[in-house]
TrEMBL record:
Cell location: Cell envelope
Database matches in Pfam families: SBP_bac_5 (PF00496)
Similarity remark: Belongs to the bacterial solute-binding protein 5 family.
Gene3D superfamilies found in the cross-reference section: Dipeptide-binding Protein, Domain 1, Dipeptide-binding Protein, Domain 3, Periplasmic binding protein-like II
GO annotation, biological process: peptide transport
Name of the featured protein: ABC transporter substrate-binding protein
Start and end residues of each Solute-binding protein family domain: 81-442
Molecular function terms, GO-annotated: peptide transmembrane transporter activity
Cellular component aspect of the GO annotation: ATP-binding cassette (ABC) transporter complex; cell envelope; periplasmic space
PROSITE patterns cross-referenced by the UniProt entry: PROKAR_LIPOPROTEIN (PS51257)
Source organism of the structure: Nonomuraea turkmeniaca
Length: 528
């Protein structure tokens, strides 16, 4: 699997668009926005151009090159989904058979027809070796009664419309491209692609630049004024993005310093919206090593964490305290899920009960992604708070890939505390967050707490089979699982992220959608 490094490497979650300095005028849209070229500063690195293996920040580009069967609409929309490569779909009463009717007349960028065989091949590839292969776990078989019909037979009931609209693992790819990458794993690296989307990959310089060009024959069509070329400059530092923005080098910056958003609210040329996201910050305790193998110690440290201060300093106020690993607004979130609050007295009491009075000389190592500015701000707050209960913390900022390798080397060599930014692959945090982060596994992928709990496992396994047919019962079982997490504390849950959306008055088509909060769909943007 490809690591979703964007889970923690994103320098900031804020999506920010602002007017290029000196280009605004009272008579209309800024001149820069009227050009055919849109210039973007982004934090999104590319770990792979393979849309099947992708599970990282390159989704920022791939979502403009490839398309799924359906798009999930933002909360509050008149319809929950927008047809993409499927025009319509229906499910059997038991939710174990799903039929998708494909859009006619669509071709891939390489000229191949988008048909039932192509959809079948794409999904089977994703299930077999995809970065998000786990989303297709319910799928038993795909059949193609005709060229424009795809039937998915499941081994258990599942919300296939959610899975088919996933941000990862659901892209439909040209059969020619699938065959080519099978023969040569570097096929995509020369700038080729196998999508049906509005843009193609025209240029790529690793770690520096991605250029997208419009696909003239895009089935969705083009209107006058839409951007024919999008030049993305990879810029991890939020301050540098702001300098590029105010200096006129870019039209869009995807990560601005959160501490400067307040000033932007008073700018008459800008509008600022606080967008909900499906992202949240958490930390893992290494439960396979002493002293963190003791739930009392883990609960003690959970009580020591300064949650409010972390939101004020780390998130600059753009967050709300998390209730477990399921973000607010995402199934199966529940207001009844218990939270820890800072209580240093309770923390000291639990440490003493565990045999570590006055901290007992405990020394722990905490790592966070050096690329992540929010973690850089709040990691020292955790160190200071733990010191108040006698626990010494060695805070280390290392690149995420290095942090990941350290954790994957095995619990004996891993850090004691691992900070992480996570978001669900699709809008079901039961089958993703709860399972991916804390379900037992002999070779854990994201369960970097190394926690194994049969009671928790049984609850999430059963709940996952009920989501499509008895959501209330599934929610109740997931609620029990989250209470178990609170009780056993294999990790701690900091805050759900809110993203300030700063947009110029001279651009249209920009919307908030927590299911795709890392993406900008360039084809929808145009000068006002």
């Amino acid at each position: 699997m490809t690591i979703r490094v964007g889970r923690v490497s994103t320098a900031g979650i804020a999506l920010a668009l602002a007017l290029t300095a000196g280009c605004s005028g009272a008579s209309g849209a800024p001149k820069a926005l009227a050009k055919a070229v849109l210039k973007v500063a982004t934090t999104a690195n590319v770990t792979t151009w393979d849309p099947v293996k992708s599970f990282s920040t390159e989704v920022f580009y791939l979502a403009n090159v490839y398309e799924p069967l359906l798009w999930k609409n933002p909360p509050g929309s008149a319809q929950p989904y927008t047809p993409a490569l499927a025009e319509s779909w229906e499910a059997s009463a038991d939710k174990k058979t799903w039929t998708f009717h494909l859009r006619p007349g669509v071709t891939f960028h390489d000229g191949e027809p988008m048909n039932a065989a192509a959809v079948k091949a794409s999904i089977e590839a994703a299930k077999d070796h995809g970065g998000a292969a786990f989303i297709w776990a319910p799928l038993k078989e795909i059949t193609t009664p005709d060229d424009k019909t795809v039937v998915m037979s499941l081994s258990y009931a599942a919300p296939m419309e959610l899975i088919a609209s996933s941000m990862y693992g659901a892209w439909i790819v040209s059969p020619k491209a699938l065959a080519a990458v099978k023969a040569d794993e570097k096929y995509y690296e020369s700038g080729k692609d196998g999508g049906t989307g509005a843009y193609t990959v025209a240029e790529y310089t690793s770690g520096q630049r991605v250029v997208l060009k419009k696909h003239a024959a895009y089935w969705g069509g083009w209107d006058k004024g839409q951007y024919a070329t999008v030049v993305n400059t990879i810029t991890p530092e939020a301050v540098v993005q702001q300098q590029m923005l105010t200096g006129g080098q870019v039209d869009i910056a995807t990560s601005l310093p959160l501490e400067n958003i307040g000033r932007m609210r008073s700018d008459p040329k800008l509008s600022v919206i606080d967008c909900a996201t499906a992202s949240s910050y958490l930390g893992f305790f290494n439960t396979a090593k002493k002293p963190l193998d003791d739930p009392k110690v883990r609960r003690a440290l959970s009580y020591a964490i300064p949650y409010k201060e972390i939101i004020e300093v780390g998130a600059q106020g753009f967050g709300t305290q998390a209730r477990g690993p399921v973000p607010a607004g995402v199934f199966p979130y529940s207001e009844s899920t218990p939270q820890y609050v800072q209580d240093l007295g309770k923390a000291r009491e639990l440490l003493a009960d565990a045999g570590y009075a006055d901290g007992g000389g405990l020394k722990l190592k905490l790592t966070y992604a050096a690329e992540n500015q929010s973690q850089k701000r709040f990691a020292p707050l955790i160190k200071d708070a733990f010191a108040k209960v006698g626990v010494t913390v060695d805070v280390q900022a290392i690149l995420f890939n290095q942090q990941w390798e350290q954790a994957k080397a095995g619990p004996a060599k891993a850090q004691d505390i691992f900070l992480l930014l996570y978001w669900p692959t699709y809008s079901d945090a039961g089958s993703d967050n709860l399972w991916s982060l804390f379900h037992s596994s002999e070779k854990p992928f994201f369960n970097l707490s190394y926690w194994n709990d049969a009671k928790f496992d049984k609850l999430v396994e059963k709940a996952g089979t009920l989501t499509a047919t008895d959501q209330a019962r599934a929610r109740a079982m997931y609620g029990q699982a989250m209470s178990r997490l609170h009780e056993q504390a294999p990790g701690f849950f900091l805050y759900d992220v809110k993203a300030p959306l700063v947009a110029p008055k001279g651009i249209t088509g920009l919307t908030c959608n927590p299911d795709y909060s890392f993406n900008i769909f360039f084809h929808r943007l145009a000068p006002a």
